[in-house]
Amino acid sequence: MKLINIGFGNMVASGRVIAVVSPESAPIKRIIREAEDKGMMINATYGRRTRAVLVTDSGHIILSALQPETVSHRFEETEELQENYE
Q1: pLDDT band at 78, cuts 50/70/90?
Q2: Contacts (Cβ under 8 Å, ≥6 apart) of 79
Q3: Rounded Cα distance, 75 and 17, in Å
Q4: pTM of the model
Q5: CA angle, corner 67, sides to 66 and 70, nearest 5?
Q6: What b/e readout covers 35-61, taking b as 16+ CB neighbours within 10 angstroms?
Q7: Taking residues 59-66, what's their average pLDDT?
Q8: Under a CB-based contact definition with an 8 Å cutoff, are residues 66 and 11 in contact?
Q9: Which is higher by pLDDT, 1 or 72?
Q10: Is the pLDDT of residue 84 over 80?
Q11: What secondary structure, in 3-state letters, does the chain show?
Q12: pLDDT digit string (tens) for 48-60?
């Protein structure tokens, strides 16, 4: 299991994340609101502005203060390290 830093020392399992999206669109805002109502939202922004929303295979929604591009680069770096290790 590979962990990805999503900011402020918070980590997520890379194999469980199915999407990293921007929180700007109305459908994503609705998904966030519904997840919060169901208790399926994890806010890892430490009070900062939400810049990336991670969607997991379990239905959890994780909010991050990092840009989606930054998070995706961290996924790519982890995959490259794993390929080089093998």
Answers
A1: confident
A2: none
A3: 10
A4: 0.90
A5: 90
A6: beeeebbbebbeeeebbbbbbbeeebb
A7: 98
A8: no
A9: 72
A10: no
A11: CCEEEEECCEEEEHHHEEEEECCCCHHHHHHHHHHHHHCCEEEECCCCCCCEEEEECCCCEEEECCCHHHHHHHHHHHHHHHHHHC
A12: 999 999 999 999 9
64 in Cβ contact with 6 (< 8 Å): yes
Tokens standing for residue 23: 């929180």
Tokens of 15: 């194999």
According to DSSP, the β-strands at 41-44 and 61-64 are parallel
Both tokens of 24, joined, read 């700007």
